[in-house]
Design a protein that fits this description.
Helix content is about 35%, strand content about 25%. The protein is an alpha+beta fold and about 160 residues long. The chain has one domain: Beta-Lactamase. Helix 2 runs antiparallel to helix 4. InterPro entries: Coatomer_zeta, Longin-like_dom_sf.
Amino acid sequence: LEILDIEGVLILDSKYTRVYGREYTPVPLTIQTFKEGLHTNNDTSIFLTGDSNTLVLYRKINDIFIIFYGNSYCNELFLNSMMNVFVESLTILMKNEVTCTNIDSKYDYLILLIEYFIYDGMFMVDTVEELVKMVPKRNFENIKGMPVPKGFSSIFKKVKFFK
């Protein structure tokens, strides 16, 4: 009896370099397994790998691939629905700009989103609103630097300790 909804999550950039990866089964798969089925002109696609009999669902957003994979008997419709929840939540957290550079700068959001969304291969949330609400917000996101009065830095120049 298989209780896992998903065997792994993989996020690749446009050069097929691993940005994030997590396996929930003891059988790891390589990027080469997926690379032959990924097409840069499709937004969303689903395919079976020939050698490992794994169902792969991926979505291309700008310059990244988001890949969910499971055994060949998993429910494709449910997997696609969960992919939609994940992508919409990621889009909200990345402020409608899901790119590799934006993910690099907000990598903590990506990790937290996946940790709250998937627990040991089982999806824990099924709505975008609930998932986004669970992810803690950055309290430093909109904070500007402390204003320094003009001429204040000249005080430090006068102190011999800072020379």
